User: Fold this.
Amino acid sequence: DDWNELFCDPERLVAGVLLDGDDATPLFSLPHEERFAALARVDWQVTLLAAATKTHREVHSLWGVFASTHRVWLAHSVVFFLAATLTSTMPPRSGPDGSTIGGDPHSNISLLAFNGFSD
Assistant:
């Protein structure tokens, strides 16, 4: 970000690129013919100092994880609640031994989702 902010704004580039030395001469104060040769003497530590080049504060949090995957969470939530609604509105059917395993396919799906794979 420091590089983008420095090189995308011409005024900041002219004022911000400083040469090594006690006086910290700006690179663009040199004649046009001498600038390329003087690039080796640029003090990049001072030029890219965050306090001088940053125009915004970067904040990192877990909100970025949600923001980048919100469509996935939304799709999973909709499918889960749709499946839960469909399986809860059907009457349970039981097999010959009284268990719901082997009965209605919707009941089997709800049993697998809510109870795991136990009998």
Remarks:
- The chain has a mean pLDDT of 75.
